[in-house]
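Page 37, continued from 36.
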């Protein structure tokens, strides 16, 4: 342990599984005290039980409820005495085009991914100001930069986080609060692996074979592992990134540099203009 986050207290939403859990482990390894939140208490408790004693606490709740979001922030301060870092990781991603997604589901995605992030940020900033400043890390997605078919609500919510992040970074930068985004591409979480079961079966391959189909045109032709996202979160939470704010940093294997039309042609062994 190098202690890059020694003395810091972090709150991570959706911290019991996937990317949130990987970030929590990374923070703890660098000396931070961490409160993880989520809707599934059993997942939070299971993850926390495997961490070093005294390094972690849990709070079960739903970020799209403003009162529960405020209680999460209060719980972190009550448990560890202050708040230095907020990671807005919790989110949902049901699919459906604009004409077939149920309106209630659209609202649930926006309320969770946008409003939940707003609530957590709103209640965390006063506590960070009391601590002399802090770092807010919003988990967006490659889908906020490049649309995913039949997922307009998710893409809209993640794109919206970019504008929100920029606005908060501008308003609070002179008070020593930094706000940045991590935008992963396809990530090998249990949630995505479960979503890939149908594709894997249809293609006669395994889950990683299915994930390979998603990333076949990217320079790095695989999904990112949650543990590969955690080091960037550690950096953004640490004082090493003291002059970085308002940035959207993509961990996408280079997917955004690819023209998918051109990649599809070249993958067939053809050059532009060939008969």
């Amino acid at each position: 342990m190098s202690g890059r986050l020694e003395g810091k207290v972090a709150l991570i939403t959706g911290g019991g599984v996937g990317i949130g859990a990987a970030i929590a482990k990374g923070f703890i390894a660098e000396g931070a005290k961490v409160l993880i939140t989520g809707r599934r208490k059993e997942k939070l408790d299971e993850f926390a039980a495997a961490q070093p004693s005294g390094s972690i606490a849990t709070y079960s709740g739903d970020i799209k409820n403003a009162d529960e979001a405020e209680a999460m922030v209060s719980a972190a301060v009550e448990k560890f005495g202050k708040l230095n870092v907020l990671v807005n990781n919790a989110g949902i991603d049901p699919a459906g085009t604009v004409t077939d997604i149920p309106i209630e589901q659209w609202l649930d995605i926006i309320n969770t991914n946008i409003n939940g992030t707003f609530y957590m940020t709103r209640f965390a900033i006063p506590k960070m100001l009391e601590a002399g400043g802090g770092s807010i890390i919003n988990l967006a997605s490659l889908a906020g930069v490049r649309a995913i078919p039949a997922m307009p609500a998710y893409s809209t919510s993640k794109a919206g986080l970019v504008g929100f992040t920029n606005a908060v970074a501008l308003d609070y930068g002179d008070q020593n609060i930094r706000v940045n985004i991590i935008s992963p591409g396809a990530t090998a979480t249990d949630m995505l692996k479960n979503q890939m079961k149908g594709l894997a079966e249809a293609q006669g391959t395994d889950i990683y074979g299915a994930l390979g189909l998603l990333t076949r045109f990217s320079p790095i032709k695989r999904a990112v592992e949650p543990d590969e996202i955690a080091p960037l979160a550690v950096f953004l939470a640490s004082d090493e990134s003291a002059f970085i704010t308002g940035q959207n940093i993509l961990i996408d294997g280079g997917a955004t540099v690819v023209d998918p039309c051109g990649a599809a042609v070249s993958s067939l062994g053809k050059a532009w203009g060939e008969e």
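The beta strands are 9-13, 33-38, 56-60, 85-88, 134-139, 177-184, 248-251. Flag for discussion at group meeting. The mean pLDDT is 92.
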